[in-house]
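The records we work with from here on pair a chain with its fold. A complete example follows; check for yourself that the lines match position by position.
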Amino acid sequence: MENNNKHRLQSVRSLTDSTYVLEIERRGMEFEAGQHILLGEPINIHKREYSIYSGTKDENLEVLIKEVEDGLVSKQLKKLQQGDMLEIEGPLGFFSIDPEMIRQKRKFLFVASGTGIAPFHSMIRSIHDLDYQLLHGVRYTEEAYEKNTYNLERHVVCTSGDDKGDFNGRVTEYIKQNEFDKDTICYFCGNFNMIREAMSLLEKKGIPPAQLHAEVYF
């Protein structure tokens, strides 16, 4: 019986020394922007969750991956060649935007650290005329992955390791120093500590907990 979970690798795109994008044959897979997949090699029992990086209308599926020291999956996937097979489970998860919120023309705040920007890249590619601000916390400016694919007026890169970003400091420091409309719908993805602090700061600024949605990368 054919394994319908197998998808062919189309390309590997390096963004930094440790971060890359896998472009994978989609084979008609439907997903909502913000969802993730469970990904690995068919011969390997180890699979990892990765947020979908591509838009819902894109021809192929993309995931943004950072190599993890002693990682059982991230280092192996980087070695794959065009034409190699991958095994996918999913799409999974409920980290997505309610279409009613879009119809109501609500404002959205996306807060990411590192590769936690992936689901927001998918949302922005998928949903036209989205009224959003994207805050991306990284150590160095080179980690502002594919920055030019965003509307630069809506995208703030917060760098803690150099002063070449849009804001010198952590993303949570940017939130402390700025004000946000209280009806803003907020989404967070990335490091747990960043998410916890960012959510707390925005609650103190008057944004109700029901408007705060998180996807945690431990």
User: Anything to note?
Assistant: The mean pLDDT is 95.
